[in-house]
Design a protein that fits this description.
The complex is a heterodimer.
Chain A lengths: L11 H4 L2 H19 L7 H6 L8 E2 L11 H6 L12 H5 L9 E6 L5 E4 H7 L3 E8 L4 E11 H8 L7 E6 L23 E5 H4 L5 E6 L2 E2 L9 E3 L12 E7 L6 H5 L23 E4 L10 E2 L7 H4 L13
Parallel strand pairs in A: 1-4, 2-11, 5-12
Antiparallel strand pairs in A: 2-3, 4-5, 5-8, 6-7, 6-11, 8-9, 8-10, 12-13
Helix pairs in contact in A: 2-6
Chain B lengths: L2 H29 L7 H30 L8 H23 L4 H10 L1 H18 L3 H7 L1 H8 L1 H16 L5 H22 L5 H9 L2
Helix pairs in contact in B: 1-2, 2-3, 2-8, 2-9, 3-5, 4-5, 5-8, 6-7, 8-9
Classes of the chains: A alpha+beta, B mainly alpha.
């Protein structure tokens, strides 16, 4: 008996070098996600070599023909204040962020509230690739090949009640893992956890994705792993990252940036070249990785070029007032 | 070598080259395609950082000199100030050229409409007369007292630079507040001395700065 008894005072992580167990953890996460999306369990050891590609992705609707921004730029130039306010901070500090296991709670005005494990969520929703424009409120833009599924498929499945008018999303709150949430000297100046929201009809629009990957691969941590929102006609900060809660509510949610500065950030935050941010013009934008140092910026399109699809959501609304 | 000669032939040229190192590093990064995903933002922020740093270095000369009694420091103040102006020119150029593509109408609109740009631009304008009157001939022509009164503008420029930075950031105020704290210390030192200083030292300081 004593031959197989484990010494009780040594934890596994004291024996295994940290870089190895982190690697294992990442592998487990990716393996879990990939397994849920159709890779047979027996193939998994091979998947470590094959990279972290999602198999059999189909091309979704609304995909652009524009050239995607390079993988390097998409994954190294990020706004994800939970990991620091510098553009390089998320890539630098999110490497060991634990995204497995992960669950998303569906709450509020729904007939079927539930806590979904990531794997279950992925089993129910086939993934597709969609190349979308991403326009940041700071007047730069990218083109990103996302992997995900339409939010509305999930919304339909949980059956919102008639009182549900808005959807409120919440990011993980975890000071130990997210240095930007620590109180420090003023912190990053925001109240945590990060909260975003959409009107229910916006959330039901077929353009809106819950993304779990980009470039055919599992979402890198700095891009909001393991699951994030993508609302391509709104400024980037609306597309909340690392979601742990989706709540259906009657009243318009108080979102993080509106709470921080309601003069500069509105609930809707639709991309609109005619309504300037008080501190910078929104008329034009810099496409990351495309334009040379000495070329002018390109014109920003209303609703980030998705006007044809989404303008009807806002008929009769004064978009200068509801910015 | 005599001290004056050593300063002129060794220390000043060395300082001059040292002050160009940040620019050299930026050029090196540019040539190696290492300016990140948004090179224009990188250049703009980088040059802006160095304007503030050189302004603070310039403003640190007097307090350091008082505290250490190392009067020779005064001989480097002009060069530090001119480098603040030099990096401010690069900073403005990176905005007007790379960011705004020299579209004058857009620049005018931006300067008028965005408070942080208004302040930054005003600071840049105020630096021009200071740089223009930095020669010995101009000091003599203006007279020490008037020259010093004019060059007190640098306090305003320093404060404006901090405000420019504070109003630029979205929510993380830490970096501009650190620069602000250093500026407060440097200006606070002057106020503190002024409160307990006899009159008449001012003009003498300027005269002393002349070779």
């Amino acid at each position: 008996m004593f031959l197989i008894r484990k010494p009780p005072d040594i934890a596994a992580n004291e024996i295994t070098p940290p870089e190895i167990y982190r690697q294992r953890r990442r592998f487990l996460r990716d393996a879990g996600i990939l397994a849920a999306t159709g890779v047979a369990g027996s193939l998994l050891p091979a998947a470590a070599d094959a990279g972290r590609k999602f198999p059999n992705l189909r091309k979704g609707p609304f995909s652009l023909d524009e050239k995607p921004t390079s993988y390097k730029d998409v994954t190294s130039y990020n706004n994800f204040y939970e990991f620091g306010s510098g553009k390089g901070d998320p890539a630098e500090h999110a490497g060991n962020f634990r995204t497995f296991p992960w669950s998303v709670a569906i709450e509020g005005e729904v007939k079927k509230p539930a806590v979904y494990q990531m794997e279950d969520l992925l089993k129910h929703h086939p993934l597709e690739e969609r190349v979308y424009r991403l326009r940041c409120v700071e007047a730069w833009s990218m083109v990103v090949p996302w992997v995900g599924f339409p939010l509305r498929d999930l919304v339909r499945r949980v059956e919102p009640t008639s009182r549900a008018k808005y959807v409120e999303f919440t990011t993980l709150l975890d000071q130990a893992q997210m240095p930007g949430q620590r109180p420090g000297l003023l912190g990053a100046g925001l109240d945590w956890p990060y909260v975003e929201g959409l009107r229910l009809d916006e959330a039901m629009h077929p353009l809106v994705l819950l993304a779990v990957g980009l470039y055919g691969e599992v979402l890198p941590n700095q891009n909001g792993a393991p699951i994030r929102l993508v609302v391509p006609w709104k400024y980037g900060f609306k597309s909340i990252k690392s979601i742990v809660k989706i709540r259906f509510v009657e009243k318009q949610p108080l979102t993080t940036w509106v709470r921080a500065n309601s003069r500069e950030y509105g609930f809707y935050s639709n991309v609109n070249p005619a309504v300037d941010h008080p501190r910078w013009s929104q008329a034009s934008e810099r496409r990351i990785g495309e334009d040379s140092l000495f070329s002018p910026k390109r014109k920003t399109l209303p609703f980030n070029g998705y006007a044809e699809q989404v303008a009807s959501l806002y008929t009769g609304m004064d978009l200068k007032k509801y910015f | 070598m005599e001290q004056k000669q050593r300063i002129r032939l060794v220390v000043k040229p060395a300082l001059f080259i040292l002050a160009l190192v940040p620019l050299a590093f930026l050029v090196y990064r540019a040539l190696n395609n290492d300016l990140g995903a948004n090179p224009i933002e990188t250049i703009n922020r980088y040059t802006g950082d160095w304007v503030l740093r050189f302004l603070l270095l310039t403003l640190a000369v007097t307090p350091l000199r008082r505290l250490t009694g190392w009067n020779a420091l005064l001989r480097y103040r002009r060069m530090l100030g001119l480098f603040a102006f030099f990096y401010a020119c690069l900073h403005f150029l990176s905005y007007a050229w790379l960011d705004q593509y020299f579209v004058l109408a857009d620049i005018v609109k931006d300067v008028a409409k965005r408070p942080y740009i208004t302040v930054g631009f005003a600071c840049f304008l105020m630096l021009i007369p200071l740089a223009a009157t930095s020669t010995n001939a101009m000091i003599r022509r203006l007279g020490a007292r008037r020259w010093q009164a004019l060059h007190r503008l640098v306090y305003l420029i320093g404060a404006g630079g901090i405000v420019h930075f504070l109003w630029l950031v979205k929510s993380d105020l830490r970096e501009p507040l650190i620069y602000g704290a250093i500026l407060t210390l440097l200006l606070g030192f002057r106020l503190w001395r002024r409160a307990r200083r006899e009159p008449g030292v001012v003009a003498a300081t300027v005269r002393q700065a002349l070779p």
